[in-house]
Amino acid sequence: MSPVAEFPGTITLISPLNLEQGYYVSIAIEGAVSSANGDSRAKRAYANNQDCLAALIACSECWNIQGQPEKPTMETFAASPMRPASDLLAWAFRELRTIYLGELKVPNA
Prior knowledge:
Elements: E1 9-13, H1 19-33, H2 41-58, E2 60-65, H3 82-101
Antiparallel strand pairs: 1-2
Helix pairs in contact: 1-2, 2-3
């Protein structure tokens, strides 16, 4: 259930992911940790949101989120208000990342 008050509802994510879906997730993870390009914070945030949305589009069956289409695309995703839309993507991508990475455990930790 979405914790974002402006966008209540659920997203049905695919599990397990196939190779192509895993690629989209890995691109979004890589983009989130890369800060060597010198872009402004706002530009990095928008690029990260685009990467996360691309992964979520590829890895979701349907969206039952108020204010969003059932099958969003880059063109139809409601990106405003900006903060709640970013929070929605962050929440959904955290859930997707958990599916992708699984239960990572560090040996002897």
